[in-house]
Automatic annotation (TrEMBL):
This is MSP domain-containing protein. PROSITE patterns: MSP. GO terms for cellular component: endoplasmic reticulum membrane; plasma membrane. The lineage of its organism: Eukaryota, Viridiplantae, Streptophyta, Embryophyta, Tracheophyta. Residues 36-57 have a biased composition (Polar residues). Belongs to the VAMP-associated protein (VAP) (TC 9.B.17) family. It comes from the Eukaryota. It comes from Manihot esculenta. Residues 73-195 form the MSP domain. Residues 215-225 have a biased composition (Basic and acidic residues).
Length: 260
């Protein structure tokens, strides 16, 4: 009996040594610490993966946005070309219709690569949602070198139309586009094509019809009260540079005619 009693503690000791997780004290503390470290590492790795995935998603979204075309607020007719009758030595006209297709008020502004020989009426303004306007574009056509006839040919002159989303009731000024240049959208870059006035064509007939509309709209705007209709500025604006260039051209023509 004495031998059996002495062996029992030894067998219990063996049993506890085989199952260390049952023991209390240092062993439990160490195991709990290891578990916490493992969970912390796993959570840390998960957070890092989430940050990396978020960064990748942002990068992909930025690239996708850069590849998409800019949101257009205005629709144009004609869409990409300004047709002018080819009449050297004269001031000729073209017309373009603009419509605000967005849900907000939109300011627009014309720019040209030849401000000395071209101007727009109106050069800028604000259109309410769904509102449209037909603008007239003026250009002085010089005689070609060596008396070459330029018909149905592209010109180097280009017109750029820019837009800017504004609040209703905003007063139009050209400085709006300078103050908020980061929000300005280039709506369209229009190229110039000359039409032969001696040979009728669908493009020439459409131009004549649009010019008649533009003239009527201009007269209506002059008669309308200031608070109604599209808010436009610079009606009939002609730059001093254009006037000076035209006067020099006419003086040169007179001298050549006298010499002849």
């Amino acid at each position: 009996m004495a031998v059996a009693e002495r062996q029992k503690p030894h067998s219990d000791k063996k049993l506890f040594s085989l199952c260390p997780f049952w023991q209390s004290g240092t062993t439990n503390t160490s195991s709990s610490s290891s578990t916490k470290n493992f969970n912390h590492t796993r959570n840390g790795n998960s957070s890092n993966r989430q940050v990396k995935n978020s960064s990748k998603s942002t990068t992909v979204l930025s690239v996708a946005r850069s590849l998409l075309p800019a949101w257009r607020r205005l629709r144009f007719d004609p869409a990409k070309i300004l047709y002018f009758p080819y009449e050297p030595g004269k001031q000729v006209r073209s017309a373009i219709r603009m419509k605000n297709t967005s849900r907000s008020h939109v300011a627009f502004k014309f720019q040209t690569t030849e401000p000395k020989s071209c101007f727009m009426r109106p050069p800028g303004g604000i259109l309410a949602p769904g509102e449209s306007l037909i603008a007239t574009v003026f250009k002085f056509v010089e005689h070609p070198e060596n008396n070459e006839k330029v018909i149905d040919q592209k010109s180097n002159v280009k017109f750029k139309i820019m837009s800017l989303k504004v609040k209703g009731g905003t007063e139009y000024t050209p400085e709006l586009f300078d103050e908020q240049i980061d929000r300005v959208t280039v709506e369209r870059v229009l190229r110039v094509v000359f039409l032969d006035v001696e040979h009728p064509s669908p493009a020439l007939e459409k131009l004549k019809h649009q010019l008649t509309e533009a003239d009527a709209a201009f007269e209506d705007r002059k008669k309308s009260p200031p608070d109604t209709g599209p808010r436009v500025v610079g009606e009939g604006l002609v730059t001093d540079g254009w006037k000076e260039r035209r006067e020099k051209y006419l003086a040169r023509q007179k001298v050549e005619a006298t010499d002849t």
